[in-house]
UniProtKB/TrEMBL annotation:
Role this protein plays: Catalyzes the reversible conversion of 3-phosphohydroxypyruvate to phosphoserine and of 3-hydroxy-2-oxo-4-phosphonooxybutanoate to phosphohydroxythreonine.
Subcellular location(s) of the protein: Cytoplasm
UniProt organism field: Trinickia symbiotica
Similarity remark: Belongs to the class-V pyridoxal-phosphate-dependent aminotransferase family. SerC subfamily.
Record protein name field: Phosphoserine aminotransferase
Sequence positions bearing N6-(pyridoxal phosphate)lysine: 196
């Protein structure tokens, strides 16, 4: 029996994709081999790669000015790869810190430059808001401005993406890419790990504007230099072939759902159900300001935290899994990525109401 999986990542996959991968496991479309056994330079895998790139470009509406790269290293490696590719002769990069992930990016950048904290969303309740553009205090000549547009742990999402003109905006979109349309033209760079909305862990998405490929530091490893990776169509080193194949199946699935705008409407509905349930009672608490509440990661606390274990055990008994909050903040967190069906959120909300009624 399959459960409803509310994990933050690796996370729920569309069941159709898993079934298709299972069907094609031993013999991919008459090739007589599994995708993981194929040469990355062979005709079969090249077709899988090109199709995944094309579908992603269409889904994300990536303009011709931007390259799409499939890399390795995950979101955290990009915290080093970004400064090594972006600093050029500049000594500063600016950071908007809205939670744990952008804070990690800010700290890692100090190995390569003098990072400047342009704004912070930290309040006396922790990270609970995305500072508006008017609150950002940029330094004189930053190489770029870094933003994490969805903070997976704190459940803070940035909805208003400013236009920074000549200053490249770099965004960590790991945990909400493909959940809503993004105006890619406003960004110099987007990056993200795959294990939330793209597919399985192992492939890292980088979208980078062509003119930014000239800024890499000499110390940047060749395999992580975007210019080299782009010039070799993500095949400078062996790419994570199976993870790219799975991502390709997810992109096809998303197109069958109606694309990013259609999935956004469902994400709005799913997250509203959950936030409405939390807000309607004093039993559950979410501290994030309404305008910054993530549609993907919904952290919440029980007003009486002594009931936490009881809540999680009851959820598990109903097949509602992985609801425990990140250890750094505690409480609960429901991650409701694209692949989590509305029925899953309905089942969770039902359970929350019953749990409250039984314990009141
Ligand atoms: N950024 C964000 C927003 C994330 O959610 C995560 C992982 N949860 C990371 C970066 C780190 O990704 P990885 O573990 O793939 O390096």
């Amino acid at each position: 029996m399959r459960v409803f999986n509310f994990a933050a990542g690796p996370a729920a996959m569309p069941e159709e994709v898993l079934r298709q991968a299972a069907e094609e496991m031993l013999d991919w479309r008459g090739s007589g081999m599994s995708v993981m056994e194929m040469s990355h330079r062979g005709r079969e895998f090249m077709s899988i790669h090109e199709e995944a790139l094309g579908d992603l470009r269409e889904l994300l509406e990536v303009p011709a000015s931007h390259h799409i790269l499939f890399m390795q290293g995950g979101g955290l490696a990009e915290n080093a790869i970004v400064p090594m590719n972006m600093l050029g002769s500049r000594k500063t990069a600016d950071f908007v810190v809205t939670g744990s992930w952008s804070n990690k990016s800010f700290k890692e950048a100090a190995k390569y430059c003098t990072p400047h904290l342009a704004a912070s969303g930290e309040t006396s309740d922790g990270f609970t808001r995305a500072p508006r553009r008017a609150e950002w205090q940029l330094s004189d000549d930053p190489a770029y401005v870094h933003l994490c547009t969805n903070e997976t742990i704190h459940g803070v999402e940035t909805f208003d993406i400013p236009d920074l003109g000549d200053i490249p905006l770099v965004a960590d979109v790991s945990s909400h890419v493909l959940s809503r349309p993004l105006d890619v033209a406003k960004f110099g760079v987007l990056f993200g790990g795959a294990q939330k909305n793209i597919g399985m862990a192992g492939v890292t998405l980088v979208v980078v504007r062509e003119d930014l490929l000239e800024r890499a530091l000499a110390i940047c490893p060749s395999a992580f230099e975007w210019k080299t990776v782009a010039a070799n169509n993500s095949m400078y080193n062996t790419p994570p072939t199976y993870a790219i194949y799975i991502a390709g199946l997810v992109f096809k699935w998303l197109k069958r759902q109606g694309g990013v705008r259609a999935i956004e409407a469902r994400n709005v509905e799913k997250s509203k159900l959950l936030y409405d349930t939390i807000d309607a009672s004093d039993f559950y608490i979410n501290k994030v300001e309404r305008a910054s509440r993530s549609r993907m990661n919904v952290p919440f606390f029980l007003a009486d935290e002594s009931r936490n274990e009881d809540f999680l055990a009851g959820a598990k008994a109903r097949g509602l899994m992985q609801l425990k909050g990140h250890k750094s903040v505690g409480g609960m967190r429901a991650s409701i990525y694209n692949a989590v069906p509305l029925e899953g959120v309905n089942a969770l909300v039902e359970y929350m109401k019953e749990f409250e009624k039984d314990r009141a």
